[in-house]
Amino acid sequence: MVLLLSTSLLALSAASSLWPGGPSPSKVPAKVEPSASLRALGDLGGEGFEGAAVGAFTRLESKIGVWEVTQGAAAINGEHVRSGSRSLHLTGGRRCEIQLDFDELGGAGRFSFWAERWTRTDPFELTVAVRVSGRWTELVDASGDVIIGGFRAEVAATLPPGADGLRVRCVSPAGKGVLIDDVTLEPARPMAIVGCRALQPVLPVLVGNRLNPVLALEVVTSGLLDALELESISFDLAGTTQPGELERVEVFHGGASIELSYDQPDSVFKDADRFGASRRPGRDATRLHTVRGPRALTPGRNVFWISVTPAAGADLDGRVDARVRSVVIGGEEIQVEDPSPATVQRLGLALRSAGSGGSRAYRIPGLVTTPKGTLIAVYDIRWKGWGDLPGRIDVGCSRSVDGGRSWSPMEVIMTQGPGDGWRGDGVGDPAVLVDRERGHVHVLAAWSHGDRAWRGSGPGLAPEETGQLMLTTSTDDGRTFGPLRNLTEMVKDPAWSYLLQGPGRGITMGDGRLVFPAQFQLSPDQGRTPHSTVLVSADGGATWGIGTGARPDTTEAAVVELADGELMLNMRDNRGGSRAIFTTRDEGGTWVPHPSSRSGLTEPVCMASLIHVGRELDGEPDGRLLFSNPAVPSAPRRRMTIRASSDGGESWAADRWLLLDEGQSAGYSCLTMIDADTVGILYEGSRAHMTFQRVPLLELFPEPGGGTSRGGR
């Protein structure tokens, strides 16, 4: 029997190098219950870390054996896990060792665990030794294989006969070390199939991506001897609306996990991972495709993905699906559990991806629709990588005049050259706003002259002292943008450490006033506490005023006008777990908590988007609000979801949650109404840095008046 130090064999892993942990997830509404792919894959039982108390230990008894710290220190971690709710942390130092004593397996065997490096600093060593007849021999040197973030390295080896102990050694800077989870021990025996099923996490199929995983086949095996081979997979594309718009369909071996990279989504599989040959789907979705290998199976989990490549002009309102028809392993046809899960994948567009336009990363989406129906998308061009300001960052812009089906080439609309003697200049975190009376498009962003961003900015008004608030405006429907205007002296309190915009988007109120969400940090002697607020202009953007802080320790916010001039500010709250929501009737002079504040909308401490449908379409309030964010209460950010409210944000019914992308991502998003029937969303997804999708409004408001027609369905 395989013994596991985990109660669950798979969960989307916590990207601990990017985001801190948080409280344990609570139950989510039924419409976005985790799919089978994100629950345990072939739960084979066992216990260990899951039953241990969080914190340091020297000795730990488990079903798999007895763990004992022989040098240095170790602890049970309850925040960063690959699965379940616990992992093991070897804390590093000059030498940190833990020993596992277990009963002999009765011959040869196999061990494995998943590991995550906990430091970028060298030295870093991770080795495993095995004990046979009282003698220790090094078995694995994984020092160069274990990487930062996400438990993405599996450390595994065959155990010799007579083995009764393992010793894991870590060398690193003190207090850093390595995290370990999902430890398995398995005796040698002939390989057998434990389970075979189809899994289908919700993932967008993106025009512009060569690789688009649609459905996974998961084969669980036990035993080391006489390895079995997967010989063929047969499937069809039933449920696909336009199979003729798919250029190819392929099958790839995805290893032992369904976790997919969101940093390089279009290279998640290599040529060596391909199972059989690629095929052209043809126009008949029920046509049977048989892809032949063979591929040797490994003990434990084996995941194979069906992937499609949509044509450049594929209909973004379409759907893609697949169904497994048969699987042949070791000369026998294997019964597949749930060969066609209920999920159907939506199409979308990879607007910006890693490497496109010469930039390593894109972040911080903003999206609006002009009175002429043009979509304006803005975003950070992070030339050197994921890092925030300060850094080489410009603001980019793309336009669409056909509802997001095609986009103009990227234009750099905001840039600041490096200053002499400074660590570089950058401008980013944009927010975009359409003046619906004048047709002007305003983009607001932060300029960091050297290190004058979130941590390095200080009191004052000059670029050498503090971050600068910069505005650029287009008067020709977003085709061109004017020179940058510096608003810092106009709106910043010199005592504040930092002032910047939303990011995301702003609004035009019913009386023509323009409103951007904003945020500021108090002075250093006040702890640099951040507050969300609003910037308001009554003269088309010529001059601006600023409100007071709505709530301490809030930052990135979204704003809508409800009725009669009342503004709702929906805020990222650093306390975690849920959004803070306040309202004002005097342009941010005073604020009142909304009844749904800190209870109505879960969040993992992240930016989010909020729009008022009626205000977006014709300027009149109708109480229909749309909200988007990663719909989980703690890191890692995942499950990008649109939620709908028909009562002005008083409630967000579970049957009006629409899951778009359940993979892990950076998690920022921005909504707009493309037309009366269609919602547009630009978000940081698991399959592209900037993912664009169209959603029929009727899917969120199915009652009469939810949409004037069925739109793109």
Question: What topology does this entry show?
Answer:
Layout lengths: L2 E2 L50 E3 L1 E4 L2 E7 L2 E4 L9 E4 L2 E9 L7 E9 L7 E8 L2 E7 L11 E7 L3 E10 L5 E10 L4 E8 L5 E3 L5 E10 L6 E8 L9 E8 L35 E8 L3 E11 L8 E2 L2 E7 L2 E3 L10 E8 L8 E9 L5 E8 L10 E8 L10 E4 L10 E10 L6 E9 L18 E7 L10 E2 L1 H4 L6 E4 L2 E2 L1 E2 L5 E8 L8 E8 L7 E2 L7 E8 L5 E7 L3 E2 L1 E5 L7 E2 L8 E2 L5 E4 H6 L6 E6 L7 E8 L11 E8 L4 E7 L2 E6 L6 E7 L17
Short overview:
The protein is mainly β and 713 residues long. 1% of the residues lie in helices and 44% in strands.
Please explain how this structure is put together.
The chain has three domains: 3-187, Jelly Rolls (Sandwich); 192-348, Immunoglobulin-like (Sandwich), CATH 2.60.40; 353-699, Neuraminidase, CATH 2.120.10. With 713 residues, it is an all-beta fold. The chain contains two helices and 51 strands. β39 and β40 form a beta hairpin. The strands form eleven sheets. Strands 1, 2, 5, 6, 8, 11 and 13 form a seven-stranded antiparallel sheet that branches. A six-stranded antiparallel sheet has the order 3-4-7-12-9-10, with no helix packed on it. Residues 1-47 and 708-713 have low confidence and may be disordered. The chain is globular, with a radius of gyration of 27 Å. The two termini are 49 Å apart.
